Amino acid sequence: MPKQRLLPDVIGHTPLLYLREVSELTGCDIYGKAEFMNPGGSVKDRTALGIIQAAEQAGELQPGGVIVEGTAGNTGIGLTLVANVLGYECVIVAPQNASQEKIQQLEMLGAELLLVPAAPYTDPHHYIHTAERVATGRAREEEHGAIWARQFDNPANQQVHFDTTGPEIWKQTEGKVDGFICSVGTGGTLAGVAGALRERNRDVKIGLADPMGSALYSYFNGGELKSEGESITEGIGVSFVPGNLAGVDVDFSCRVDDDDALPYIFDLLKHEGISVGGSSGINIAGAVALARELGPGHTIVTILSDSGSRYQSKLFNPEFLWKHKLPYPEWMAN
After folding, report:
1. What's the whole-number mean pLDDT along residues 184-194?
2. Which residues are known catalytic residues?
3. What is the rounded distance in angstroms from the CA atom of residue 312 to the CA atom of residue 292?
4. What are the tens digits of pLDDT across the range 133-177?
């Protein structure tokens, strides 16, 4: 039997799950790519692997070097896992409002964790800008150097999804996919999958599911970066256009409220046994919207980004949801 390392060899190749309730609701076949089944528990394992391998190939990352990144959590977890295996160290800059579960996992994995106050992207103290400054400083200090992963505009981010996620979806649907939709954090997943699917069939419709508080919906609908409301989701929704999205054509976009997304999460867990986080709820709501836009009989794919266990203190905490005036099922309060 051939020997296989846990990482990075088993990142990707995730199942495509048929989502029964929303498929029956819309008359379409709606599938979710089970990215929560990656070793680090999220779609960001692919991003982490792609960024590290590209840095190695370019000679930017030396043995024993340091990887610095600003992240709401999942990319940091993926980077730290891969870095541990390949012999690098990780410095993760995260906002203080990241879920406690993500923070605890980063600490467990041995990341050097810097928590900063949540701030708008225009603020120089935003976690992304802070990470850039930290990387610059560490590059001068570290014997083996340091790099800033810069997931928002690193071409390796979308490239790994072009090379892996998109082709996997095409193969798993036997080329019958009519539409793909997901939310955007860095834009790498949407851009990479869109490119891979359109290379195989230019008629595949690409959609954006945007949470409240994000400006991308208004950008793709009117060319203006304007946000409304707020969302408890993490890692998605931005007030700027990430470099990964430059030049990406979106056929359909919708804005999704937490009130609409959360019931999909709860129903999926209760009736289909699949536990997912907040961004997956936004994605499923987006898939339903795209299915209604295209009409019955189409095949729609979205991303199940990570597991609900990563948000137990928020999404599955009735007291937290009640305080934020958000819906929760009766069974959760019992």
Report:
1. 97
2. 44
3. 31
4. 999 999 999 999 999 999 999 999 999 999 999 999 999 999 999
What CA–CA distance (Å, rounded) separates 245 from 266?
31
Q: Is 21 exposed, middle or buried (0-12, 13-18, 19+ CB in 10 A)?
A: middle
Cα–Cα distance, 178 to 170 (Å, whole number): 10
* Residue 73 confidence class, pLDDT cut points 50, 70, 90: confident
Q: How far apart are CA 294 and CA 203, in angstroms?
A: 12
Alpha helices by DSSP H, listed for the chain, are 20-26, 44-57, 74-86, 100-109, 127-141, 155-160, 166-172, 188-200, 216-222, 258-272, 278-294, 318-323, 330-333
- What distance in Å separates the CA atoms of residue 235 and residue 158, rounded to the nearest whole number? 16
d(Cα 2, Cα 10) in Å, to the nearest integer? 13
CB atoms within 10 A of CB 77: 28
Q: Torsions phi, psi of 207, nearest 5?
A: -125, 155
Q: What is the pLDDT of residues 24-39, one digit of tens each?
A: 999 999 999 999 999 9
Structure token digits, residue 315: 């999404």
With beta carbons less than 8 A apart as the criterion, state whether 294 and 28 touch.
yes
Residues in contact with 67: Cβ distance below 8 Å, sequence separation at least 6, in sequence order: 52, 55, 61, 79, 83, 88, 89, 90, 91, 146, 147, 149
Q: Which residues pair with 113 in a beta bridge?
A: 92
Q: Count CB-CB contacts under 10 A for residue 197.
A: 27
Provide the 3-class DSSP secondary structure of residue 93: strand
Give the bridge partners for 210, in sequence order: 255
